[in-house]
Amino acid sequence: xxxxxxxxxxxxxxxxxxxxxxxxxxxxxxxxxxxxxxxxxxxxxxxxxxxxxxxxxxxxxxxxxxxxxxxxxxxxxxxxxxxxxxxxxxxxxxxxxxxxxxxxxxxxxxxxxxxxxxxxxxxxxxxxxxxxxxxxxxxxxxxxxxxxxxxxxxxxxxxxxxxxxxxxxxxxxxxxxxxxxxxxxxxxxxxxxxxxxxxxxxxxxxxxxxxxxxxxxxxxxxxxxxxxxxxxxxxxxxxxxxxxxxxxxxxxxxxxxxxxxxxxxxxxxxxxxxxxxxxxxxxxxxxxxxxxxxxxxxxxxxxxxxxxxxxxxxxxxxxxxxxxxxxxxxxxxxxxxxxxxxxxxxxxxxxxxxxxxx
Length: 358
Description:
The protein has two domains: 2-50 and 318-357, Urease, subunit C, domain 1; 53-309, Alpha-Beta Barrel (TIM Barrel), CATH 3.20.20. A seven-stranded parallel sheet has the order 6-7-8-9-10-11-14. It has a four-stranded mixed sheet with strand order 3-2-1-4, with no helix packed on it. Strands 5-15-16-17 form a four-stranded antiparallel sheet, covered by helices on one side. The chain is an alpha/beta fold. The radius of gyration is 20 Å and the shape is globular. It has helices at 72-75, 95-102, 134-143, 157-160, 166-174, 193-199, 225-232, 248-256, 270-275, 281-291, 295-300, 304-309; strands at 2-9, 15-21, 24-28, 40-44, 49-52, 54-59, 81-87, 108-114, 148-155, 181-186, 204-207, 218-219, 222-223, 236-238, 318-331, 337-351, 354-357.
């Protein structure tokens, strides 16, 4: 079936009609002729913005380890997100089950593989280094090359305990000749953020980089030189908002220093989706409007950037959304509240060739 979306507004302001057919999207003339024999549905989106389908690059969309999990079809397409990437909820022990669950989701699902084989079945999954089994990781990477987008290593004191920086060192040594993406969670130290940053390379994704914790990229309102050095090496930046990892103050300092957006993501799971401060990817994107980023920068950080970084196949997924003039209160992970007068609101998606009203 073909879909014709009329009166779409692109991010550059262009007013177009879009034809969706066979996982392809093309602009068509406003006088595009419909043949009676064509199996085609027409939707007038009335001047709403239309972008590629949104990708949330950091979710906990596996339902296996509640409460720190969710369902892809609750944090996915009903919120304007057509692809969710689970950020290491599961390790090698449970990735088979998660893969089979994901096949029944309407939302597209990809996953980072937690380097600890037990994943988030325990919140200190790297306190026992015996949980890191690279032979088992290798086996699962070969089984699910299209599903697994990289490896996840969580580097907070409460997770690694006495193992310090060793889990990261082991992971990067394993990855030397593989060029997998390695998502590195940062939080409270030790290990110190400076020691983590010095190890990272162009295949690494620094997650939670806008947190406001003591062990952050900011010291006395200045950006660490080690952070600046990591950017020169090509390290990728992932927001990963979550319950404890996004600070308006850190965001303001980073914006002032003209550090570009790479990946805007939520670190969403059931509780922070229902009760905040995350709620949805659109809500997190609105916070970046507040910080002064352009709409193009924001949309690129949830579309073309993750598609490129994770080598996701081109598809016909689209997200249709408005920017509404509305007085709202926004709160970061540290309790700072701000007032803002706009909100990004998803209206519908095109997902796997289907138009879905939200």
